[in-house]
């Protein structure tokens, strides 16, 4: 019979427990708390404001069995707390102490920045106790966000829509996106003409352009006319060396941004992958705002560079952090073993690991050297000069590891006074652009720049604003416009028109109508919550708490004294004002007002005034969907009127079933009975019977191919990963050696009964 281990080590995740087990001996048993074991109550505030913001904690929902198991395992043993080295990890350790009846000032607490043999051995040799300053900072954030959420969200439920939330950091993030979108919509694009000449010298062609753009087509044409008889010479050649230096090792936000740029990963995906790499011992802790590397890591990088590239590639350095934060671990994200070039459980993890490996090594390598050349072209008939720039990489330096450098742009070897042959001169109409929409990565950069949030908050914040319908990540197709192009070639000017797309964007964060409505309401009635500087100042105060410079109750009182009185003011706002209801005009048929307002599932059109709730006999208004692709603040009376003709009878199927067309929550569609088909290219007001019949026939064919057997509530279907049985709530895969068409209802039900229930996943709560 195995001897019971003398020590119990408690971590926050099963994956971390599994990795730790490979380094600790038989004297240590490792258990997981599956994230936070205790939290504020789910269905009530759990904070007594009158008693100096005293919190009430309880075992988290679904964690009762985990708590019981930890209590049982801790009896008669020395307990070691080994949760992550940040505020959340410290709070988890403290809550475990309280759960087990341990004294936080005496219980052993071990922290490590990486899960390696040496780091674990060192941590066990030098345990500390729970740092209550970090616990207080986490409690302050949790309580503050709970007070905001539980007091402010009900105001939004009454005034805008049930179920809304208004987190402290998420609301500011949404405001940034809303304001940027409004700037873009208000932007009036203007066009100018860019002059670019294509020249030939020494058998090599190159382009040079006029530094200033011309305001209109007439001016561009006149410019080309003056250039018809011109000759061209080299006015100057300026060569000078330059360099490109490597970036710092990754902080959390830098990793999120670079993984988005190079790998196309979302912020949430990056953090999930990094968490797995950390828990499996491959990288150091992934929540940090420090670019500093340990001496051990710097020396390992030196050894690798000298061995594989030579001393001319080595330039060891340390990077300075932008600011100090007691919350975060004090080292950059790096591999735990630089000699391991690639690792990870899947391709996605491997790609992220390789990015971290490359960035870490590159940070200790020499800058790349380039030779920059600026060449100016003199025009005999004009005073202006055209400019050409070239750049040649003369030493690759860190780019040998961390590529992505610019391609060489060679210019011909010419001297001042050399004549140049004009191949052609183009005057092309170009449009200026508004500021770019936020991507997930650029939003992280902006939040970091404003001092809002911390490394642990960026991913959940960006996730929650999408999950709750404030923001959508999608492509914007843009608008195709005709642009003019004038070409001077062989002494003749020709004019042409090109199709140019302006305003297109890919994978950007776009606010919904709901985002604009909630943002405007919060800015008007809760200005501190939406103020960038105020929100950043709160983060600084949380840092002060973590450093012992400020008491957490004092910080909460100062915040709450400003925030709480605003609740009563917000309660007095009218629902009409909050939902930004506005009259578009009168219906020409009835004379009734047509109103656009925000309803339960988004903006709607309303014909007729809203009735007095006390008058049960008052006529009810008629409602219509919004035109596709039009926002609440853009819709006009002319666009609204046809919407009241929906749903529209398009015609009938060959079987005589009625075909309807309309617009729903998920866009325009045609419908026959219970079969709905989304319209991609057609409009519900103009789609023809023939077009609708084709779409419906294709949809019915898809449904028939997907359905193998229908036993009523129980169905056998073809799925993405093969055939399966479902009752709508639970699925069961059909074994490969079983023909799904041979299943009767009894056999299908047995497969479903025998299938394991989907395991409930416990996730560590991250404060938003």
Description:
By secondary structure, the protein is of the alpha+beta class. It has seven domains: 7-130, Rossmann fold (3-Layer(aba) Sandwich), CATH 3.40.50.140; 143-187 and 437-473 and 482-571, Orthogonal Bundle (Topoisomerase I, domain 2), CATH 1.10.460.10; 191-240 and 371-431, Topoisomerase I, domain 3; 252-362, Topoisomerase I, domain 4, CATH 1.10.290.10; 581-644, no CATH class; 646-707, no CATH class; 712-754, no CATH class. It contains 21 helices and 30 strands. The strands form eight sheets. Strands 9, 10, 11, 12, 13, 14, 16 and 17 form an eight-stranded antiparallel beta sheet that branches. α5 (132-159) packs antiparallel against α16 (532-546), α6 (168-186) crosses α14 and α8 (252-263) packs antiparallel against α12 (440-450). The longest helix has 28 residues, at 132-159. The chain is globular. The two termini are 47 Å apart. The model is unreliable at 324-329 and 760-768 (pLDDT under 50).
List the helices and strands and how they pair.
Layout: E1 7-11, H1 14-21, E2 28-32, E3 38-39, E4 47-48, E5 54-55, E6 58-59, H2 64-74, E7 78-81, H3 87-100, E8 108-109, H4 117-125, H5 132-159, H6 168-186, E9 191-201, E10 204-209, H7 217-227, E11 232-244, H8 252-263, H9 267-279, H10 295-308, H11 347-362, E12 368-379, E13 385-395, E14 419-431, H12 440-450, H13 458-467, E15 471-476, E16 479-489, E17 492-502, E18 505-511, H14 513-525, H15 527-530, H16 532-546, H17 552-571, H18 575-578, E19 582-586, E20 593-599, E21 602-607, E22 622-624, H19 637-640, E23 648-652, E24 658-664, E25 667-672, E26 675-678, H20 689-706, E27 707-711, E28 714-719, E29 722-726, E30 731-733, H21 745-754
Parallel strand pairs: 1-2, 1-7, 7-8
Antiparallel strand pairs: 3-6, 4-5, 9-10, 9-14, 11-12, 11-14, 12-13, 14-16, 15-18, 16-17, 19-20, 20-21, 21-22, 23-24, 24-25, 25-26, 27-28, 28-29, 29-30
Helix pairs in contact: 3-5, 5-16, 5-17, 6-13, 6-14, 8-12, 9-11
